Amino acid sequence: MKNLSVISSGMITGVGLDNPSTCAAIRTGINNFEETRFIDQAGEWIIGSMVPLYEPWRGRLKLLNFAVASIRECLAPFEQIPENQTALLLCSAENDRPGRLTGIDEELLDEIQSALGLRFHRESRVIRMGRVSGIHAINLASQLLSYSDINYCIIAGVDTLLVAPTLAVLEEKEYLLTSINSDGVIPGEAGAAVLISSKTKMNVRYGETKLSLLGAGTGHEKATVNSEDPLRADGLVAAINGALKDASIDLKDLDFRITDINGKQYYFKEAALALTRILRSHKEEFDIWHPADCIGEVGAAIVPCVLSIILTASRKNYLPGKNILFHCGNDSGERAALVMCPEDHGM
Q: Exposure of 95 by Cβ count < 10 A (0-12 exposed, 13-18 middle, 19+ buried)?
């Protein structure tokens, strides 16, 4: 994966209905955690991060509006993006996730295009891999941009965990933050989109700072959050090492991390263990950002959300460093990592 750039972004979350307001809230540590209409097994209201929508949309219609709003914001800076040269890669929940909404695959893809009044390239598709979907979408975009008739890719992610069957299973597995379980996640929902191109194919004029995607890696963890096997962070180590190798950089040269860590202690332990296994040089500081503290667990939307956050932070000049590591993982064991930096800095 070489020469990929994030050009623009859009986002809708529980703390903001657009990218600037969401990023401002995250920067200042504001959240929108409040009681939902769902009740836990102890009879108490479940806390969640709900998007304050203008209409009481539910189900697929809610996800459709998330996607349309974020993609429109992503494309707003440009007079025209050639739709027939642009592939839409839509990230969604895993096929086997309890409570996964029906009709959120090709049906949702078609509905998004109809609502936008656009018809994207025939290679547009849905990637059903939950939180790691966005990294696989980036790898796919790298391949698609080698096609002669594709100049841009939109990576969009939409998801909601605020669905009764999903919450019921999460609570049963002691994965959900409730009145009787403090080691759990706050369920959220979000939509986000980023426009990606390669330096050789970018033919729109846009003077803002761009975000270079330098390397990606994947791995698989056997000792998952629900496993009794000893945690060695093998999957995350493999993903990070793969991203570092792809980017031709050492971990010691990175300035900070941003992750999908969502409140479950397992993932903090895994991140710390992976760092001790990879880092061979002393670092005075290696900060870690976890946006879930503000927006909750947003599932398949997390990767475009993170790219939007980093792109905005680079343009507003509040990044704590230029070279950034992002890593994420699914509860079933998939792990993925990404190395990136603002283009006007370079490696």
A: exposed
Q: Are 300 and 133 contacting, i.e. CB atoms less than 8 angstroms apart?
A: yes
Distances (CA, A) of 120 to 10, 83, 93, 130, 172: 18, 5, 22, 23, 41
pTM of the predicted model as reported, rounded to 2 decimal places: 0.95
SS3 242: helix
Residue 295 CB coordination number (10 Å): 30
pLDDT, one tens digit per residue, over 43-98 is 999 999 999 988 888 889 999 999 999 999 999 998 888 999 999 999 999 999 98
φ and ψ at 289, to 5 degrees? -100, 140
Secondary structure element (H or E) that encloses residue 307, with its range: helix 302-316
Nearest to 196 by CA among 173, 212, 214: 212
Tokens of 88: 């839409």
Q: Is 37 exposed, middle or buried (0-12, 13-18, 19+ CB in 10 A)?
A: exposed
Report the alpha-carbon distance of residue 86 to residue 245 in Å, rounded. 29
- The runs of H, that is alpha helices, within 8-132 are 19-27, 59-75, 106-116
Burial class (CB in 10 A: 0-12, 13-18, 19+), 172: exposed
Per the structure block, which two tokens stand in for 42?
């102890």
In angstroms, the CA 146 to CA 302 distance is: 26
For residues 30 and 23, the answer to whether their CB atoms sit within 8 Å is: no
Longest pairwise C-alpha distance within the chain: 58
Tokens standing for 246? 């792809």
> How far is residue 201's CA from residue 3's CA, in Å, rounded to a whole number?
10
